[in-house]
Amino acid sequence: MAMINKDKKYKWEFDNIGGSSRVRINSGEAIAHLAELDPKMWTVLSCPVKGLEIDEKSLAYMDIDSDGKIRVNDVVATAEWITGALKDADLVLKGSDNIDITQLDLDNEAGKKLHGAARQILDNLGKEGNVISLADTSDIAAIFAKTRFNGDGVITEASSDDADEKAAIAAAVASLGGVADRSGAQGVNADMIEAFYKTLAEYVAWQEAAVEAPYGDKTDAAIDAYNALDAKGKDFFMRSKLASFSPDSTAALDVQTSRIEAISADNLTGKTDEIATYPIARVTGKAEIDLSEPVNPAWAAQFETLKSVAAADKKVLTEEDWAAIGAQFAAYTAWKGAKAGAAVEALGLDEIKDFIAKDKKAALLDLVAQDAALAEEAANIDMVDRFLHIFRDFYKLLRNFVTLNDFYTKDKGVKAIFQSGRLIIDQRECRFCMKVADMGKHNAEAAASGMFLIYCDCTTKTSAAKLNIVAAVTVGEIGDLVVGKNALYYDETGEEWDAVITKVIDNPISVGQAFWSPYRRMAKTIENLINKSAADKDAKMIADANAKINAAPAAVPAAPADGTKPAAAPPFDIAKFAGIFAAIGMAVGMIGSALVSLAKGVLALKWWQLILAFVGIMLLISGPAMIMAWMKLRRRNIAPLLNANGWAVNASSKISIPFGETLTDIAKFPKMKLKDPYAKDGLAPWAKFVIAILAIAAVAAGLWLFNILAGLGLKSPLPRYNQPEVVVEEVVEVADTLAVADTIVDVEPVVE
């Protein structure tokens, strides 16, 4: 793998892409020198091989270490390989799926191998000229269909002109199963040839050691019956010997009537397993089976087969007879158990011996060796396919890896490899859609992007496949973008998917949307409070009603024992409620006074002051939200979305407000005068306008007549509001102050 070399000095050029400085990759020379580019300057450090809008086979070819990730060193190694194989490295920029093989550099080792392999492919396909394309390398079977050898170490019937060799290959494939050749045909390799001839020899050796069947073609059936009955027969003889030893136990050793009675009421055809557990014959104490007597019906078929073949001349079977029958089968059974070469048995013994006699084993192995000798050449043919895939898609990867040109380009026909399609929802088209590999991880990290995101589950009628996507909404209002809303998704191939929103990440969409957000939240809060209050009252009403229904009737108060009348209810105390009414009236009055004061204050303002005050209040409410939205919109970044999908993004990739407007389209209808056919007949627009003007004039006149507009200098003409003001003069009387000399009077006390 090529490694980055920062010691070399290549003069790089830079562009402003997405608001950041990024290296310019616009020449084959720049691609060839990627090893010298500081990794810190790469926009992306790694990306996954799967889930992108680029041929996965191309990405797999670029994944040098085959770990499922394309990293910087993978890109560098690929760049050096493909630019080295070309005379003109600028050809990589075209992104073509074909190449004139004369453009390959024969002085370069890779270019020389590619040229030779491409030439062979064209010759095998019977194509003239020097141009080879991906279509030519995509059908490996067609490339090798007309060739005897293709370097895969597998030979087919087409690999030989000898009839016996062809027959041996066909027999080996039929017996052992074949392996696919590069041509697409079934063939055999060296290991299969060795196994085939070994199996032939083993089968013949087994057949030559054959043991004569004691009962001819009936032997196998008799053996199967004996093996099935052997355990039951030995059980019978043991029971019989025990009954002979202890006659009193005979009834217990024989089939018990109670067991039969237990199942007698059932359908006995379904009780075969139970019946099979009974002794094979009646236990009487004699250690022999009377062949003239019936046996256990569960074993009757097998017993009849064994009796007709191995005991046709007997009337009874003793334990010695039973063992002798088994001994007759022992040698034959052992020979059959040692069977070898069963895989070729279907060929027939004569044909098998014929293959052994002709012995084409060495010739077939030689053909395999000839085929394997072309392994390097065949690998070079695979290399041509790798080259053409990379030749077509490598520059596209660079525009999305070293830089993000494809994402920030103004060309709407070009999209980044992580943009998977478009979502049509709520009269808008979201062009920035991504496939989601891990929903849990993506949901946890995506909020940091600062974008308004909607996650959707997608299904299509053409297959059972399911798709998870995330779409960014960058223009317009929130509208009806809520969980559960249905939409349509179109992937890059044009296939239509049904989409349903499963999650919404709420971030600002635009400054205009942020202006109304406080009022929407306020309305939502009020709505929730009203709903909660209504629900609480409804629940309380129902609870009270249930309590009253379930409550016991109130007991009538009993009369006092002394015969006096019960105390009467206290009379209505109007004084008590007068205070309450007064308090309510005071509160209403205070509220009314406040409203009047507010109205007077407002009316005291001039018209332009009213406008400024209204604008100030609106800015006070919406201003903070708009400022925060503007700051968040400037920080919108796609890096968290890519990181959540397994990318390693090395640079900030922001979505500015103007750029965001290109990622979402809103439906624009032409201005037309359309009449609703279902609208009720009403007044003409001009009549509605006149009525509205008259209504406004009437309200204004009322305000003027009732002197409400006095603060604006418009006094009412009504006499009650034009009474002359009464001037009350305050008269202050000042009494003369007399200075009186202090006089001391001595008063004699009066003594009576």
Describe the protein.
The protein is α+β, with helices and mostly antiparallel strands. Among the domains are: about 15-145 and about 375-405, no CATH class; about 155-210 and about 345-370, no CATH class; about 215-260 and about 270-335, no CATH class. Helices cover about 45% and strands about 10% of the residues. The chain contains 25 helices and 19 strands. The strands form six sheets. It has an eight-stranded antiparallel beta sheet with strand order 13-15-14-17-16-11-12-19, with helices on one face.
Task: Describe the largest sheet.
Answer: 8 strands, antiparallel
In round numbers, the mean pLDDT is 83
Number of E-type strands: 19
Task: Going across the biggest sheet, name each strand in turn.
Answer: 13-15-14-17-16-11-12-19
How are the SSEs ordered, and which strands pair?
Elements (H helix, E strand, L loop, with lengths): L13 E4 L2 E4 L4 H5 L11 E5 L7 H7 L6 E3 H13 L13 E3 L8 H17 L5 E3 H5 L1 H5 L18 H14 L2 E2 L5 E2 L2 H19 L10 H27 L4 H4 L3 H7 L8 H5 L11 E3 L9 H11 L5 E3 H19 L11 H10 L2 H12 L2 H27 L3 H4 L12 E5 L2 E3 L2 E3 L3 H8 L5 E8 L6 E8 L12 E6 L4 E10 L5 H40 L23 H30 L3 H28 L4 H6 L3 E2 L7 H4 L3 E3 L18 H21 L47
Antiparallel strand pairs: 1-2, 3-4, 3-18, 5-6, 7-8, 9-10, 11-12, 11-16, 12-19, 13-15, 14-15, 14-17, 16-17
Helix pairs in contact: 2-17, 3-17, 4-17, 7-8, 8-15, 8-16, 9-13, 9-14, 20-22
Quickly describe the structure:
46% of the residues lie in helices and 11% in strands. With 752 residues, the chain is of the alpha+beta class. Among the domains are: 14-145 and 374-403, no CATH class; 157-209 and 345-372, no CATH class; 216-259 and 270-337, no CATH class.
